Amino acid sequence: MQAVCDKKLGGASMTEMDIFYKGRLEETRCALKQTQEEFKSFKDRVAQGLGLSIKTGDTESMNNPVSKMKLKQMYDNLRITKWPKMRGNLNSNKMNEEFARALIQKMFEDSKKQMEKNKKLIMEMCGLDENSKGPTPQRVTQYTQLTIQNLQLALFYSRKEDVQTPFPEYKGENPQDVMVTFRHLAAECYWLGCLMALNNPPLEPCRKCDDELNPSEIFPRHIESACEMEPMEQ
User: For the CA atoms of 153, 159, 163, 166, what is the dihedral angle to 10 degrees?
Assistant: First the structure.
């Protein structure tokens, strides 16, 4: 190639040579610019795809405050650290203990049902319900899941007291501080239950382990996803 160029320029004037090499230089610059733009586009696509995979549960992110690992840590903290302190305010009353047990189970169940309704509404708005026709674009699925996780993060950063928590009727008499403890327990369980239900896949207390609990234990020891709790087919 260089030999051909030299042959062409053998009898050319300095002006012609200058024009020729300027043209070649401009072509090289354009090619380099195009390569840089293509590389930048590639990096942006990879970064966006990686960001979505982290946020939609395909990858466990250490920086995600509501990752499965962090949710398990929060549950253990509630079960092992917070609950014993609240339990001390219940006056060792058997009726209070039974109400607390039922309250904990109800809060996790109610939060799961409410979050399932919220997720269904979001998916219907994005055309991902069972009535949708035709294949769904991958981006729609990814950003729908991202919307659900943003709801999860919004709840995480909300004050537990600000999350609307249903509270069942208590048939009995108790001092004010005991009822405050019950409401605090309900708020803790409902808030955490919402976060767990919005995980992908959803998490919930492992009730199959209840038979292993000591009589003094009220919280199931573990949380698992529904698929992990399903019995294996023989």
Answer: 130
